Structure formats: C-alpha cells, structure tokens
Amino acid sequence: MGTFMGGSAPAMARQVCDGYTLLSMTSLKRLSVEQMQQLEFEMDKNLRLARGTQPDLNDQPALQERNRRIFRIEGQLRVLRHTAQQKKMGRL
After folding, report:
1. Percent residues over pLDDT 70 in the chain
2. d(CA 53, CA 69)
3. Distance between CA 58 and CA 12 in Å, rounded?
4. If pLDDT is split at 50, 70 and 90, which confidence band does 1 have?
5. Residues 36-77: pLDDT tens digits?
6. Per-residue pLDDT, 92
7. Whole-angstrom Cα distance, residue 67 to residue 38?
8. What DSSP character marks residue 21?
9. What is the pTM of this model?
10. How far is it, in rounded angstroms, from Cα 46 to Cα 5?
11. Residue ranges of the domains in the chain?
12. N-terminal to C-terminal alpha carbon distance within the chain
C-alpha cells in the first residue's frame, strides 16, 4: 500500500486539480483501490467547486481558466477511474 503524493488525498487532489501533478497508470499503480476511491471523492469535490464558481461573462480570461480547470479535472478523473477499474479486475 503506497502513500499519496503530497501526504493526503485532499492534498494530492489539490495538486492534480491545479495542474502540478499528472496522473498516469504508472503513478497510480502503487495506490490501493480504497485510496483511489478516496482520491476520486476529493477530486469530485474539487470539480463541483470549480463548476460552482461563475466568473463574470465579460471576463474572458477567467472563463477560460475555469474551463481549463474543469477540463483538466475531468481528464484526470477519467485516468483515475480507468486505473481503478483495471486494478479491481486484477489487470494491474
């Protein structure tokens, strides 16, 4: 059983959502399925928070940053869910 990058699931989720850390099957291989579920929960929380912030519609840079953040989180969640599914099936 590995440990989270950054020390805890919320810290790792924050790093991933801010774009400092990229998830891959290799980097997630050392985590257990329970740890992956915990990380998924924290990332979902960050995704809801990002979707909940509504910048002014005239502020294009803020809108672009919000959309980039949402896109980045959704992509990393896809990687996380796929890796967790592979691990559950015993393929990793």
Report:
1. 99
2. 11
3. 33
4. low
5. 999 999 999 999 999 999 999 999 999 999 999 999 999 999
6. 78
7. 24
8. S
9. 0.91
10. 17
11. 9-88
12. 14
Q: Mean pLDDT for the chain?
A: 94
The whole-angstrom separation of Cα 92 and Cα 71 is 26
Place of tokens 């990687």: 79
Question: Nearest 5°: phi and psi at 61?
Answer: -60, -40
Residue type (1 letter), 64: Q
Q: Which amino acid is at 44?
A: D
Chain centre to alpha carbon of residue 53: 18
Please give the structure tokens belonging to residue 44: 């979902």
What is the rounded CA–CA span in Å between residue 56 and residue 68? 16
Contact 12, 65 (CB under 8 A): no
Q: Token digits for 80?
A: 């996380």
What is the b/e burial string over 28-67, where b = at least 16 CB atoms within 10 angstroms of the residue's CB? beebeeebbebbbebbeebbeebeeeeeeeeeeeeeeebe
d(CA 66, CA 86): 30
